[in-house]
Amino acid sequence: MSATPPSPPSALSSASSSSLSEAELYAESLHFLEEHERALGMDARSILEQRFGLRLPPDVPNDKALLAGVLVELMRVRQVRSKLGEVNTLEDVVRLIEGSSRVLVLCGAGMSTAVGIPDFRSKGGIYERIRQRYPFLDDPQLLFDIHQFRLDPRPFFELALELLPATDDALRPSVSHCFVAELERRGKLLRCYTQNIDGLERRAGVQRVVFCHGNFDTVTCVRCGWHGALSDAVRECIRAGQVPCCERCRRLQADDEDADVEEVEPVLKPDIVFFGESLSDAFFGQIHDDLEATDLLLVLGTSLQVAPVAKIPTSIRPGVPQILINRELVARARVEFDVELLGDCDVVVAELARRLQWEMASMTPASAYTFHPPHRYLFPGAIPPANEEEEEELPVIDATLPASTSLPQPEHQ
Ligand SMILES: [Zn+2]
Questions:
Q1: Number of domains into which the chain is organized
Q2: What's the rounded mean pLDDT across residues 49-60?
Q3: Of 81, 245, 264, 348, which has the maximum CB count within 10 A?
Q4: Which are the contacts of 71, defined by CB distance < 8 A and separation ≥ 6?
């Protein structure tokens, strides 16, 4: 007769997210390892390897306290966020927004494509063009690699031309940006975490925004660390296709005849987070509190492919509704969203604003969409999931407004 193995910690034994705090999760993991050791005579290392299929490097010590921490991380990675049964429809989304005062918005490229900012990953997007222009860069993501930048910043600045508008006013925020601003104006926005570097959230008036990947507002000298606002001169320099240099370093170099010419070029790098760089302090300083505080998550125009932003949905307390507004489903996020509103962001949020009876400027007219029960809607611009076409034809809901009931315009116009 063999001993019954203890149950794994709760987050691993069920598909749903655990409601345990980090400390409780750690205590439970440690307890699990101790119980397992007692019942089956297995050490912590063997448990992780045999029961969870983890391959640990040989130099990781066989230490229960340490490996309990590894187990907690493993749980986080393997966690799947399960859909809430009671949240399914557009009516539910509207009701949730109306009742919420702490909406967390995660946004990405899909929010800015409507105003002409190129997307990175889609067909014809930035990465595809980089591959064509710089075949020597094996991986187009290398353009945003800090080591590659130090080797040769020119490809990055050539690309920056596309991302950096001629003036601050040259780009106007999209309807989706304005929707986030409206959430804030109505006291409903806890925080907007954007992965975009175009700065359009601020242009739309959003104050409670964290630029997870930085933006072009400021620059830092890669040699001396001088940090400051992007000046008109630097903007001009980038727009002229040149690499901007640090004036401070230049002056020092001119004064010092013994200056080491071998030293790294004093390039001014826009404060965009490159691969290989850590996310901003603003992100880490805020995210833990926000994960606890939020009462509704809106994922807006992102496929959640880049960590750690991609991990936010699985890190939020269970029971907090999560809504996806994106052209396509999010495959890798390990999240079952409660309502999936697939389509162009601007079109979807315009319909939400209409139902919320919000007055917003420059609204896209509401348009027809289809409801795919229990919880998916396809709006114009949607990329339907692969098996969607086989489904029976669904009734089209025409939400176009009759001419007489057009939305009121904002007062200042
Ligand atoms: Zn410098």
A1: 3
A2: 81
A3: 348
A4: 9, 29, 32, 33, 48, 52
